[in-house]
Amino acid sequence: MLIVITGFIFLSVAMVVSLALYPLLTKKGELQERLEKMMPEKQASTTFSEDKPWWRITIEDLGAKLPVAAKEQTKYTRMLVAAGFRKESLYLFLGSKLALALILPGIYIFTYALPKGVLMEPEPLLYTTGLAIAGFLLPSGWLMYKVNNRKTEIFHTLPDILDLLTVSVEAGLGIDAALNRACESPQFKGNPLAEELKIAAREIRAGKPRGDALRDMAERTDVEDVRAFVTMLVQTERFGTSLSLALRVHSDSLRTKRRQIAEERAAKTAIKILFPLILFIFPALMIILIGPAFFKLMDIFK
Protein backbone atom coordinates (compact mmCIF):
# COMPACT_ATOMS: atom_id res chain seq x y z
CA MET A 1 0.00 0.00 0.00
CA LEU A 2 2.91 2.32 0.76
CA ILE A 3 4.31 1.75 -2.74
CA VAL A 4 0.95 2.64 -4.30
CA ILE A 5 0.67 5.87 -2.27
CA THR A 6 4.27 6.81 -3.12
CA GLY A 7 3.66 6.19 -6.81
CA PHE A 8 0.46 8.22 -6.72
CA ILE A 9 2.23 11.15 -5.05
CA PHE A 10 5.01 10.95 -7.64
CA LEU A 11 2.50 11.04 -10.51
CA SER A 12 0.70 14.02 -8.98
CA VAL A 13 3.94 15.96 -8.48
CA ALA A 14 5.15 15.05 -11.97
CA MET A 15 1.92 16.25 -13.54
CA VAL A 16 1.89 19.56 -11.65
CA VAL A 17 5.54 20.21 -12.57
CA SER A 18 4.90 19.26 -16.21
CA LEU A 19 1.94 21.63 -16.43
CA ALA A 20 4.05 24.42 -14.95
CA LEU A 21 7.09 23.87 -17.20
CA TYR A 22 5.25 23.03 -20.43
CA PRO A 23 5.22 26.61 -21.83
CA LEU A 24 8.97 26.95 -21.23
CA LEU A 25 9.85 23.55 -22.67
CA THR A 26 7.76 24.06 -25.80
CA LYS A 27 8.79 27.67 -26.45
CA LYS A 28 10.25 28.04 -29.93
CA GLY A 29 13.52 29.74 -30.62
CA GLU A 30 13.73 33.04 -32.46
CA LEU A 31 15.41 31.43 -35.48
CA GLN A 32 12.76 28.71 -35.73
CA GLU A 33 9.95 31.28 -35.59
CA ARG A 34 11.58 33.35 -38.36
CA LEU A 35 11.98 30.27 -40.55
CA GLU A 36 8.35 29.30 -40.07
CA LYS A 37 7.23 32.79 -41.08
CA MET A 38 9.13 32.29 -44.36
CA MET A 39 7.18 29.05 -45.03
CA PRO A 40 3.50 30.07 -45.42
CA GLU A 41 2.26 26.59 -46.36
CA LYS A 42 3.65 25.09 -43.18
CA GLN A 43 2.41 28.05 -41.17
CA ALA A 44 -1.09 27.60 -42.59
CA SER A 45 -1.13 23.88 -41.82
CA THR A 46 -0.21 24.43 -38.18
CA THR A 47 -2.31 27.50 -37.45
CA PHE A 48 -5.16 25.53 -35.91
CA SER A 49 -2.97 23.60 -33.49
CA GLU A 50 -0.94 26.67 -32.51
CA ASP A 51 -4.10 28.58 -31.62
CA LYS A 52 -4.89 26.06 -28.90
CA PRO A 53 -3.83 27.04 -25.38
CA TRP A 54 -0.94 25.05 -23.91
CA TRP A 55 -3.06 23.47 -21.19
CA ARG A 56 -5.48 22.08 -23.76
CA ILE A 57 -2.66 20.57 -25.80
CA THR A 58 -1.26 18.98 -22.64
CA ILE A 59 -4.61 17.49 -21.62
CA GLU A 60 -5.22 16.21 -25.16
CA ASP A 61 -1.81 14.52 -25.11
CA LEU A 62 -2.73 12.85 -21.83
CA GLY A 63 -6.04 11.69 -23.29
CA ALA A 64 -4.34 10.30 -26.39
CA LYS A 65 -2.04 8.19 -24.20
CA LEU A 66 -4.90 6.87 -22.04
CA PRO A 67 -5.65 3.22 -22.95
CA VAL A 68 -9.36 3.15 -23.74
CA ALA A 69 -11.19 0.41 -25.64
CA ALA A 70 -12.55 1.26 -29.07
CA LYS A 71 -16.09 0.60 -27.86
CA GLU A 72 -15.69 3.12 -25.03
CA GLN A 73 -14.20 5.68 -27.41
CA THR A 74 -17.19 5.28 -29.72
CA LYS A 75 -19.59 5.71 -26.81
CA TYR A 76 -17.85 8.86 -25.55
CA THR A 77 -17.67 10.27 -29.09
CA ARG A 78 -21.41 9.85 -29.57
CA MET A 79 -22.09 11.46 -26.21
CA LEU A 80 -19.84 14.42 -27.05
CA VAL A 81 -21.57 14.94 -30.39
CA ALA A 82 -25.00 14.63 -28.74
CA ALA A 83 -23.91 17.28 -26.21
CA GLY A 84 -22.99 19.67 -29.03
CA PHE A 85 -19.21 19.20 -29.12
CA ARG A 86 -16.94 18.13 -31.95
CA LYS A 87 -15.62 14.61 -32.36
CA GLU A 88 -12.11 15.98 -31.96
CA SER A 89 -12.92 16.79 -28.31
CA LEU A 90 -12.63 13.10 -27.38
CA TYR A 91 -8.98 13.28 -26.28
CA LEU A 92 -9.65 16.50 -24.37
CA PHE A 93 -12.48 14.75 -22.52
CA LEU A 94 -10.40 11.65 -21.74
CA GLY A 95 -7.46 13.79 -20.67
CA SER A 96 -9.67 15.83 -18.35
CA LYS A 97 -10.79 12.62 -16.63
CA LEU A 98 -7.18 11.62 -16.00
CA ALA A 99 -6.12 15.15 -15.04
CA LEU A 100 -8.91 15.56 -12.47
CA ALA A 101 -8.21 12.09 -11.09
CA LEU A 102 -4.66 13.29 -10.33
CA ILE A 103 -5.22 16.97 -9.50
CA LEU A 104 -8.06 16.65 -6.95
CA PRO A 105 -6.29 14.15 -4.67
CA GLY A 106 -3.01 15.99 -5.28
CA ILE A 107 -4.53 19.21 -3.95
CA TYR A 108 -5.82 17.37 -0.87
CA ILE A 109 -2.45 15.71 -0.27
CA PHE A 110 -0.33 18.85 -0.58
CA THR A 111 -2.71 21.21 1.22
CA TYR A 112 -3.83 19.00 4.11
CA ALA A 113 -2.41 15.48 4.37
CA LEU A 114 1.30 16.27 4.04
CA PRO A 115 1.32 19.45 6.21
CA LYS A 116 -0.61 17.61 8.93
CA GLY A 117 1.60 14.52 8.62
CA VAL A 118 -1.40 12.18 8.40
CA LEU A 119 -0.89 10.87 4.86
CA MET A 120 -0.62 7.20 5.88
CA GLU A 121 -3.62 7.19 8.19
CA PRO A 122 -6.79 5.36 7.04
CA GLU A 123 -9.02 8.43 6.79
CA PRO A 124 -6.73 10.49 4.49
CA LEU A 125 -6.15 7.40 2.35
CA LEU A 126 -9.91 7.00 2.01
CA TYR A 127 -10.34 10.68 1.10
CA THR A 128 -7.52 10.47 -1.45
CA THR A 129 -9.04 7.42 -3.11
CA GLY A 130 -12.51 8.99 -3.10
CA LEU A 131 -11.23 12.22 -4.66
CA ALA A 132 -9.40 10.26 -7.37
CA ILE A 133 -12.54 8.30 -8.23
CA ALA A 134 -14.69 11.45 -8.11
CA GLY A 135 -12.25 13.32 -10.36
CA PHE A 136 -12.31 10.49 -12.89
CA LEU A 137 -16.12 10.25 -12.92
CA LEU A 138 -16.90 13.98 -12.74
CA PRO A 139 -16.44 14.71 -16.49
CA SER A 140 -18.71 11.79 -17.37
CA GLY A 141 -21.46 13.08 -15.08
CA TRP A 142 -21.11 16.59 -16.48
CA LEU A 143 -21.27 15.24 -20.04
CA MET A 144 -24.42 13.23 -19.31
CA TYR A 145 -26.00 16.36 -17.82
CA LYS A 146 -25.18 18.35 -20.98
CA VAL A 147 -26.54 15.58 -23.23
CA ASN A 148 -29.84 15.35 -21.33
CA ASN A 149 -30.31 19.14 -21.31
CA ARG A 150 -29.63 19.39 -25.03
CA LYS A 151 -31.97 16.52 -25.88
CA THR A 152 -34.73 18.09 -23.79
CA GLU A 153 -34.28 21.45 -25.51
CA ILE A 154 -34.37 19.81 -28.94
CA PHE A 155 -37.50 17.85 -28.04
CA HIS A 156 -39.35 20.99 -26.93
CA THR A 157 -38.21 23.03 -29.95
CA LEU A 158 -39.03 20.47 -32.65
CA PRO A 159 -42.82 21.16 -32.85
CA ASP A 160 -42.23 24.91 -33.24
CA ILE A 161 -39.70 24.36 -36.03
CA LEU A 162 -42.12 21.96 -37.71
CA ASP A 163 -44.81 24.66 -37.62
CA LEU A 164 -42.44 27.11 -39.30
CA LEU A 165 -41.51 24.49 -41.90
CA THR A 166 -45.21 23.83 -42.55
CA VAL A 167 -45.97 27.53 -43.08
CA SER A 168 -42.93 27.91 -45.36
CA VAL A 169 -43.85 24.88 -47.48
CA GLU A 170 -47.50 25.98 -47.75
CA ALA A 171 -46.24 29.41 -48.88
CA GLY A 172 -44.54 27.75 -51.85
CA LEU A 173 -40.97 27.22 -50.63
CA GLY A 174 -39.13 23.98 -51.29
CA ILE A 175 -37.94 21.82 -48.42
CA ASP A 176 -34.34 23.07 -48.73
CA ALA A 177 -35.41 26.72 -48.65
CA ALA A 178 -37.79 25.97 -45.77
CA LEU A 179 -34.95 24.36 -43.78
CA ASN A 180 -32.76 27.42 -44.39
CA ARG A 181 -35.54 29.75 -43.28
CA ALA A 182 -36.20 27.70 -40.13
CA CYS A 183 -32.58 27.57 -39.01
CA GLU A 184 -32.04 31.29 -39.72
CA SER A 185 -35.16 32.45 -37.86
CA PRO A 186 -34.34 34.91 -35.03
CA GLN A 187 -36.60 33.07 -32.57
CA PHE A 188 -34.39 29.98 -32.83
CA LYS A 189 -31.08 31.81 -32.55
CA GLY A 190 -28.64 29.72 -30.50
CA ASN A 191 -31.03 26.76 -30.39
CA PRO A 192 -29.25 23.40 -30.78
CA LEU A 193 -31.82 22.00 -33.23
CA ALA A 194 -31.56 25.12 -35.41
CA GLU A 195 -27.77 24.76 -35.39
CA GLU A 196 -28.05 21.12 -36.48
CA LEU A 197 -30.48 22.09 -39.24
CA LYS A 198 -28.03 24.76 -40.37
CA ILE A 199 -25.25 22.17 -40.62
CA ALA A 200 -27.53 19.84 -42.59
CA ALA A 201 -28.54 22.68 -44.93
CA ARG A 202 -24.89 23.52 -45.59
CA GLU A 203 -24.12 19.88 -46.34
CA ILE A 204 -27.04 19.77 -48.79
CA ARG A 205 -25.77 22.93 -50.52
CA ALA A 206 -22.32 21.35 -50.72
CA GLY A 207 -23.75 18.45 -52.72
CA LYS A 208 -24.52 15.85 -50.09
CA PRO A 209 -27.79 13.96 -50.66
CA ARG A 210 -30.62 15.39 -48.61
CA GLY A 211 -31.50 12.06 -47.02
CA ASP A 212 -27.92 11.40 -45.91
CA ALA A 213 -27.52 14.91 -44.50
CA LEU A 214 -30.76 14.63 -42.52
CA ARG A 215 -29.88 11.14 -41.23
CA ASP A 216 -26.50 12.42 -40.06
CA MET A 217 -28.30 15.25 -38.27
CA ALA A 218 -30.55 12.73 -36.52
CA GLU A 219 -27.51 10.71 -35.44
CA ARG A 220 -25.81 13.81 -34.07
CA THR A 221 -28.81 14.85 -32.01
CA ASP A 222 -29.53 11.28 -30.82
CA VAL A 223 -33.20 12.20 -30.26
CA GLU A 224 -35.82 9.64 -31.30
CA ASP A 225 -38.34 12.29 -32.38
CA VAL A 226 -35.78 13.86 -34.72
CA ARG A 227 -35.16 10.43 -36.24
CA ALA A 228 -38.91 10.04 -36.79
CA PHE A 229 -39.03 13.50 -38.39
CA VAL A 230 -36.17 12.64 -40.76
CA THR A 231 -37.78 9.31 -41.66
CA MET A 232 -41.03 11.13 -42.42
CA LEU A 233 -39.24 13.60 -44.73
CA VAL A 234 -37.39 10.84 -46.58
CA GLN A 235 -40.54 8.75 -47.07
CA THR A 236 -42.55 11.78 -48.18
CA GLU A 237 -39.94 12.59 -50.81
CA ARG A 238 -39.75 8.96 -51.92
CA PHE A 239 -43.50 8.36 -52.29
CA GLY A 240 -44.46 11.86 -53.44
CA THR A 241 -47.07 12.54 -50.77
CA SER A 242 -48.08 16.02 -49.57
CA LEU A 243 -45.20 17.46 -47.58
CA SER A 244 -47.20 20.20 -45.86
CA LEU A 245 -49.86 17.73 -44.69
CA ALA A 246 -47.21 15.32 -43.39
CA LEU A 247 -45.45 18.13 -41.52
CA ARG A 248 -48.70 19.34 -39.95
CA VAL A 249 -49.72 15.83 -38.82
CA HIS A 250 -46.26 15.14 -37.43
CA SER A 251 -46.22 18.48 -35.58
CA ASP A 252 -49.63 17.75 -34.03
CA SER A 253 -48.49 14.30 -32.91
CA LEU A 254 -45.38 15.78 -31.27
CA ARG A 255 -47.46 18.38 -29.43
CA THR A 256 -49.79 15.64 -28.22
CA LYS A 257 -46.81 13.64 -27.01
CA ARG A 258 -45.38 16.67 -25.22
CA ARG A 259 -48.74 17.34 -23.54
CA GLN A 260 -48.99 13.70 -22.42
CA ILE A 261 -45.51 13.87 -20.89
CA ALA A 262 -46.48 17.05 -19.01
CA GLU A 263 -49.66 15.40 -17.73
CA GLU A 264 -47.70 12.35 -16.62
CA ARG A 265 -45.23 14.49 -14.70
CA ALA A 266 -48.07 16.44 -13.10
CA ALA A 267 -49.68 13.18 -11.97
CA LYS A 268 -46.41 12.07 -10.38
CA THR A 269 -46.10 15.30 -8.41
CA ALA A 270 -48.70 14.26 -5.82
CA ILE A 271 -46.81 11.05 -5.08
CA LYS A 272 -43.42 12.78 -4.95
CA ILE A 273 -44.66 15.44 -2.52
CA LEU A 274 -46.13 12.82 -0.18
CA PHE A 275 -42.81 11.84 1.43
CA PRO A 276 -41.60 15.36 2.32
CA LEU A 277 -45.12 16.09 3.55
CA ILE A 278 -45.05 13.15 5.96
CA LEU A 279 -41.42 13.58 7.04
CA PHE A 280 -41.23 17.37 7.49
CA ILE A 281 -44.58 19.18 7.33
CA PHE A 282 -46.77 16.86 9.40
CA PRO A 283 -44.35 16.65 12.38
CA ALA A 284 -44.04 20.45 12.52
CA LEU A 285 -47.82 20.81 12.28
CA MET A 286 -48.37 18.28 15.06
CA ILE A 287 -45.88 20.09 17.31
CA ILE A 288 -47.69 23.39 16.75
CA LEU A 289 -51.14 21.90 17.38
CA ILE A 290 -50.43 19.44 20.18
CA GLY A 291 -47.44 21.14 21.83
CA PRO A 292 -49.33 23.73 23.94
CA ALA A 293 -51.91 21.16 25.08
CA PHE A 294 -49.14 18.76 26.03
CA PHE A 295 -47.39 21.33 28.23
CA LYS A 296 -50.71 22.29 29.89
CA LEU A 297 -51.36 18.63 30.70
CA MET A 298 -47.88 18.39 32.18
CA ASP A 299 -48.64 21.39 34.43
CA ILE A 300 -51.98 19.88 35.52
CA PHE A 301 -50.50 16.52 36.49
CA LYS A 302 -47.71 18.15 38.46
Alpha-beta classification: mainly alpha
Largest sheet: none
Tell me the CATH architecture of the domain at 151-267. Answer: Up-down Bundle
The percentage helix is over 70%
Calculate the terminal CA-CA distance, rounded to whole Å.
64 Å
Stated plainly, the CATH topology of the domain at 151-267 is called: Receptor-associated Protein
Unreliable stretches: 40-49
Give the overall pLDDT as a whole number: 81
Contiguous helical run count: 14
- Counting DSSP E segments of at least 2 residues, the number of strands comes to 0
**SSE pattern, N- to C-terminal:** HHHHHHHHHHHHHH
General form: flat
CATH class descriptor name of the domain at 151-267: Mainly Alpha
- Proportion of residues in extended strands: under 5%
Radius of gyration: 29 Å
List its salient traits:
single chain, 302 residues, mainly alpha
Overview of the structural elements:
With 302 residues, this protein is an all-alpha fold. The protein has a domain at 151-267: Receptor-associated Protein, CATH 1.20.81. The protein contains 14 helices and no strands. The radius of gyration is 29 Å and the shape is flat.
